[in-house]
Write a structure and sequence with these properties.
Blueprint: H1 3-55, E1 58-63, E2 69-74, E3 86-91, E4 96-99, H2 112-119, E5 124-130, E6 133-144, E7 147-157, H3 159-194, H4 196-211, H5 226-285, H6 294-329, E8 337-340, H7 341-352, E9 360-363, E10 373-376, H8 378-394, E11 400-408, E12 411-418, H9 451-461, E13 465-471, E14 475-483
């Protein structure tokens, strides 16, 4: 069962219950008012008849059995009274004394319980029935000299009240059914119209599921109600999913490229190592057929071992770089503390003296950094600076490599300048990508293209930034900015 049908049934059910309760209340109130009004009229008419009747009573004397003189009242002819009600008088023995012409051959009934209650001086109003005609009857005691001498019965037909109430009941029932039907139809239409945007949500979700097209959005021009906010939220979620999906696609593409490049970089030293090992195996296997001197075997073995050692070291460095990048991808958080920046730079300078280089290494005065601290990791900061300095020496054949320091506001800047081969302008946005090497450096110098990626990760982990100034054949300048401890 759909939501709109359930909502319609709920609305219709609640409306039906409210209409039924309202109908019952209205019926009871109307019935009570009609009968109370009729009872009040009956009492008023009874009082008027009783008054006129007492004024025309005659007294008759008689002798009691004990010899005392008593008297009785002869009830008058009631036909002289001008009234539209049915009148009847019964004496205290229950015998009919008189009745109005309107009753013809009928008598107003009175049961024994009612008769006894009236003889005790009580006035009673009851519903009675004569020949299938409903009567509302007043039983009023006739009292003379503090004695009940009879019962005055005043009755009126109430079939018209029952007819009116019955008519009202059927009209209300039919009107309610029509109203509930109209309400159900309108409710179903409004529910369908209100929930139409939900169907658009389902349609868009189905299209996305079938075609993975995240460009679809839910069109909505209605008010900013709950559904409007829901659709706005879903559209925002779709936009976010689209961005995440695109990022995942880019990450997956980069991962494939990363694996491919890493495999390529590892394959080269492995091939070299395997080739040298196979050469040694063949050399020793062919020793019986081709006599070789011990000196020749030692020289060939030494060269192979040197190649194997060199390639193994290259593989070790590559694996270390890959491990650093894997930590970066895994969200590794390096331990940091407040440390002085000057000793770090001095340590890197001492290590850089042992790098293979063909140019001068110029170092600026570092006294500017005295007592200056940064919040960082000693080892990773050294590794980052060493990468930039090593690259500067690698790509600089003549001229110099210079290291300067400066402070601007709350940052320390470490500037590393070389006079090497430089880069093209279009290479700059990509130099921090993994395994990327500018065209001018490919084939000229060995390398994996991972150093600057690691350096960029270390800089970002220290909330720093890096500037690049370069010109082809004129050299490159890197300026690393690290925030100072306040």
């Amino acid at each position: 069962m759909s939501i709109r049908l359930r909502l319609t049934l709920w609305y219709t059910g609640i409306l039906a219950v409210m209409i039924i309760v309202l109908g019952i209340v209205l019926f009871l109130v109307l019935e009570n008012n009609l009968f109370n009004s009729e009872k009040d009229n009956l009492k008023t008419q009874g009082d008027e008849v009783y008054k006129e009747m007492l004024e025309s009573l005659d007294r008759t004397f008689y002798l009691r059995p004990d010899g005392t003189l008593g008297y009785q009242y002869e009830l008058p002819n009631l036909n002289f009274l001008s009234t539209s009600y049915f009148l009847q008088v019964v004496n205290k023995y229950g015998e009919l004394e008189d009745k109005s012409f309107a009753l013809f051959d009928y008598e107003i009934p009175m049961d024994e319980e009612t008769f006894d209650a009236v003889l005790n001086g009580n006035q009673v109003i009851k519903t009675t029935n004569i020949n299938n005609v409903s009567l509302l009857t007043l039983y009023k005691p006739i009292i003379l000299q503090n004695e009940v001498v009879g019962v005055l019965q005043v009755a009126t037909i109430i079939d018209d009240i029952y007819t009116y109430l019955n008519t009202f009941q059927w009209i209300y029932i039919f009107s309610s059914l029509i109203l509930i039907g109209i309400a159900a139809t309108v409710g179903l239409f409004m529910a369908r119209k209100t929930l139409k945007p939900i169907e658009n949500v389902i349609l868009a979700a189905n299209q996305i599921e079938k075609s993975t097209d995240l460009d679809n959005r839910i069109l909505y021009e209605g008010p900013n109600d709950e559904i409007g906010r829901l659709i706005h939220t879903i559209n925002g979620m779709l936009s976010r999913i689209q961005i995440i999906y695109a990022e995942l696609e880019d990450a997956y593409r980069l991962q494939r490229r990363f694996v491919s490049d890493a495999s390529h970089e590892l394959r080269t030293p492995l091939t070299t190592i395997r080739g040298n090992i196979e050469f040694l195996e063949k050399m020793w296997q062919s020793n019986n057929e081709h006599k070789m001197s011990e000196q020749e075997k030692m020289n060939l073995t030494k060269e192979s071992v040197i190649d194997i050692s060199s390639e193994a070291e290259r593989m070790s460095l590559l694996v270390n770089d890959l491990l650093s990048l894997a930590r970066a991808d895994a969200g590794y958080e390096m331990e940091k503390e407040n440390i002085s920046i000057k000793p770090i730079i001095e340590q890197v300078i001492r290590k850089a003296q042992y790098l293979p280089k063909s140019v001068d290494f110029i170092v600026d005065d570092l006294e500017l950094l005295k007592d200056i601290q940064v919040f960082g990791n000693n080892e990773y900061l050294q590794q980052m600076l060493f990468i930039f300095i090593e690259n500067a020496f690698k790509y600089t054949e003549k001229g110099y490599v210079e290291l300067k320091v400066k402070t601007v506001e709350n940052q320390v800047g470490i500037e590393i300048t070389d006079t090497g081969i430089g880069m093209k302008k279009e290479d700059i946005p990509h130099i921090f990508n993994r395994f990327y090497r500018a065209d001018v450096s490919r084939g000229i110098k060995p390398g994996t293209g991972l150093g600057l990626s690691i350096a960029k990760w270390i800089i970002e982990e220290h909330s720093g930034s890096v500037e690049v100034l370069t010109s082809l054949e004129s050299g490159t300048t890197f300026i690393i900015w690290i925030p100072l401890v306040e």
